[in-house]
Amino acid sequence: MTEPAPSTLHHTAKRPTGWLRRTLPPTAGGIGFTLVIALIGYALAGLPGLGSLGQLAWAILIAALYRQLFGYPERIRIGIQFTAKRLLRLAIVLYGLKLNMFIIFQQGLGLMLKDMLSVVFAISLTLLIARWLKADMSLSLLLGIGTGVCGAAAIAAVSPIVNAKESDTAIGAGLIAFLGTIVAIGYTLVQPLLPLTPAQYGVWSGVSLHEIAHVALAAAPAGEDALALGLLAKLGRVSLLIPLSILLMSWMKRTGRIQQRTRMEFPWFLIGFIAASLLGSWEWTGQPIIPLLLQDALSHGASFLLTMAMVGLGLNIHLQALRGVWRPLLAMSITTLLLILLTYAIV
């Protein structure tokens, strides 16, 4: 193999520095943007009469309002997405420390059965209603999978498998963010009125809401136990994305609609959540291996990271994207309502 010329080597050596110059400011700016809105959300949630929504909901509402008034801050998108994806997953892992593994063993099989019912029900019913409404079936399939599994992440994962148009993927993610946020905020408002224990409410949130962020938003006001169980239930649905994608790939190949192998990213944060739960539950000579004081500090840190991640969710809400897609939106809305009622009856 011919060695590159000295000038090429010199240019190659400088590329990482140039990349850092281009990447670090937008990343830091995006993280700082979410940090500021998270602090405003905390401040508003602490005011009399405004605390019922909680800091997560306020962060989403402020970000959504910003999007409608000023558009998406494209220059710092990389930092916002880093917060909305990476820091969100870190927060979920940290919340695993507060979940006792004995609860997982006690609830595990029942939760997984509820998760499977939720996924099958949401996808099947969305497609049936969409066919009845004569809605776009490609977009409706994406919305059904997003409703049943894990929102925009599921839509993004299956879009290349089902050869979905980029516009359908973008619109589907926007619709999921829009409807899911409204429903999650509604959960926070009705939670004090429901005859459910925090554990039941957390499970209900986890098996019925669209995004992981929506579950965090809805379950957090009910306490740490509700939030931990809600995330556990939701992560069960996330794990079902893998067998669902394999089934979709098999179906697409059988019908001749897929020409290339599609790779999927394994949700490693699911493993991290379970590992953190094991660490949080492990005791040595009658004392937790991770001191309770440290667990509480990490839990508070995770709450703030979640609030920052909500900003990314709010910025995805674009009201103009709702024009012309009312049929798929209606199909998803009806399915969401019936899924809420079904899962409420079985928790």
Describe the structure.
This protein has 347 residues and is mainly α. Helix content is 76%, strand content 1%. The protein has helices spanning 6-45, 54-70, 77-95, 101-133, 137-148, 151-158, 166-190, 198-208, 212-219, 224-239, 241-254, 268-281, 292-315, 326-346, and strands spanning 283-284, 287-288. The longest helix has 40 residues, at 6-45. It is globular and about 60 Å long. The termini are far apart. Residues 1-16 have low confidence and may be disordered.
Features:
single chain, 347 residues
What is the helix fraction of residues, given as a range? over 70%
Radius of gyration of CA atoms, rounded to a whole number: 21 Å
Largest sheet: 2 strands, antiparallel
| Run of helices and strands | HHHHHHHHHHHHEEHH
Mean pLDDT: 81
- Which spans of ≥5 residues are poorly predicted at pLDDT below 50? 1-16
What structural category characterises the helix and strand content?
A: mainly alpha
Q: Looking across the biggest beta sheet, what order are the strands in?
A: 1-2
How much of the sequence lies in strands comes to under 5%
Let me know the number of strands: 2
Measured distance between first and last alpha carbons: 64 Å
The DSSP helix count reads 14
Shape: globular
